[in-house]
Amino acid sequence: MNKYYGSSNISYNNIDGQLMSDESIIWKGTPKKSAFIINSTIKMMPFALLWLGVDIPIILSLILSNDSSSHNLFFVFFFAFHLMPVWSWLYNIFTAYGRWKNTEYAVTDKRIIIRNGFIGYQYNSIYYTDISNVSLHVGVIDRMQGVGDILITMNISLGMTQKGNQINTTSILDVENPDHVMGIVQKTVMDMQTDIHYPNALRPEVNHGYHTEYRP
Questions:
Q1: HSE of 89 in the Cβ direction (CA atoms, 13 Å)?
Q2: Cα separation of 38 and 155, whole Å?
Q3: I need a surface site. Which of 2, 67, 104, 138 has the fewest CB within 10 A?
């Protein structure tokens, strides 16, 4: 679900309650429930099933060997740890609904806000000065569900003590009308970055966006 923001109802349990006094929402939305749960289920599934297929014959052979030696306890702990990819996959499945309920996105005139979590939740802010690229990913399941993922790449300077930049990527997952949302995010990032880097003394009171024409 996604929409343009036009409500004055504020709850501190959602993104509305996290806004600064002079901050306005341009777009906000949530992942499509069915797409989010399906994608959580198939994520890591081929790798987890392959891993399980390798470990199960070994585990069965140890069980059927009737070996009551002390090595059995070692193998129990070994395979409990060795099956971590399977446990991670099962965790994704069983927590999908809770994570979907706690996921919300907003594009404002100051930043992009992402709320996520399972039992608890957290808010992450992405400021426009840190964004280096915005792209759209639509997989096979996404096309069937009519959703897509907006991928946001951030190029953050490590500061004076460390040379270079750190590249991070975060995502707005499984939103409906992904092309439309992508257009909103791209235009907002471009407009805000243009406005931020415009000389303060020459900055107009109203930013009408980036509309200049390139003439080589």
A1: 16
A2: 31
A3: 67
Q: Which tokens go with 81?
A: 């740890």
12: CB partners within 8 A, 6+ apart: 18
> Which residue has 């930043």 as its token pair?
111
Question: CA-to-CA distance for 69 and 33, rounded, in angstroms?
Answer: 49
Q: At what angle do helices 84-94 and 33-42 cross, to 10 degrees?
A: 170
Instruction: Locate 200 and state its tokens.
Output: 């303060």
User: C-alpha 23: how far from its chain's center?
Assistant: 22
3-state secondary structure the chain: CEECCCCCCCCCCCHHHHCCCCCCEEEEECCCHHHHHHHHHHCCHHHHHHHHHHHHHHHHHHHHCCCCCCHHHHHHHHHHHHCHHHHHHHHHHHCHHHHHHCCEEEEECCEEEEEECCCCCEEEEEEHHHEEEEEEECCHHHHHHCEEEEEEEEEEECCCCCCCEEEEEEEEEEEECHHHHHHHHHHHHHHHHHHHHCCHHHCCCCCCCCCCCCCC
Mean pLDDT by 10 residues, the chain (216 residues): 48 74 90 92 76 72 62 67 76 86 92 89 90 92 94 72 67 94 92 76 69 64
Give the span between the Cα atoms of 184 and 27, in whole angstroms. 8
CA–CA separation, 143 and 55 (whole Å)? 34
Burial class of residue 142 (count of CB atoms within 10 Å of its CB; 0-12, 13-18, 19+): buried
